Amino acid sequence: MRRRATVPARVNIIGEHTDYAGGLALPFTIKNRLVLEANFSTTEYIGDATIIELWKEAGGPVAELKLQSDIPIGKGLSSSAALCIAIASCVTGQLANMQTCHLAQQIEHRVLGTKCGLLDQMAMVYAKQGYATMINFSTNSVEKIEMPRTWKFKLIDSGIHRKLADTNYGPNLSKNSDHVIAENNRVMQAQNASAEELGDLLNKSHESLINLGVSLPSIDSKVSELQQMNGVLGARMMGGGFGGMILVLVNDETVLPEYPLVESSGPATLEIIL
Questions:
Q1: What are the φ and ψ backbone dihedral angles of 257, each rounded to 5 degrees?
Q2: Which fold would CATH assign to domain 148-261?
Q3: Which of 114, 158, 175, 274 has the fewest CB atoms within 10 Å, counting from its CB?
Q4: Cβ distance 125 to 100 under 8 Å?
Q5: Could you report the per-residue pLDDT of 127-147, keeping only the tens digit for each?
Q6: What is the pLDDT of residues 154-182, one digit of tens each?
Q7: CATH code linked to domain 2-144+264-273
Q8: How many CB atoms lie within 10 A of CB 2?
């Protein structure tokens, strides 16, 4: 028997560093995918050492593990979470439930050392093409928000590669912290925002991340440069911080023509092959 999990990359429109504080976020998935195939017709563990360690931590039996991925590593698109979701779903044979999300979070904590919340896992499992997913982490509930055609996003690589386990990822924030309260309000406003209004929210979100201490001067300079470009409605650093991708909202696809638009994709999938 084989199981094949296909997991998308995650983009977060707004709502950073809110998941472990019981806040709100508004992510969507994109076309980049990680594919893990587990072949249980073997007598020994075969595959990359880190993948095998994660697999064993999840309670996986002896298997041959093959991985393919076009999700960039260390760029804020949640490549590690995608791998852990793939492993958790292949081990349990289940996908669209919170048990899989929690197991993926657990092995990422224990093996990779990243003290992440549940943003990435829930975004990947509960995504819907053409929609963003509004996640309430105080109840782990989701609501699908149809994305207006006027929301046109591009991703710009900051050029800074980071490993979240080696950074100050996961500041000690409570639901009553200034950042979480303000970011939650921005998520609520974003649901019905025009493109211009959303751009302003992105700019304010980045300013809040600066004040939170999870950005870098070189990234701030790049974000500021983008924010002032003609045709750019807003921009902010995306992900846990300290590098990775910059999310840019443009009024037309001809703005920053060297970068393609990123569009909402579907959820993770699991195939069982007998």
A1: -65, -20
A2: Alpha-Beta Plaits (3.30.70)
A3: 274
A4: yes
A5: 999 999 999 999 999 999 999
A6: 999 988 765 554 455 555 666 668 899 99
A7: 3.30.230.10
A8: 16
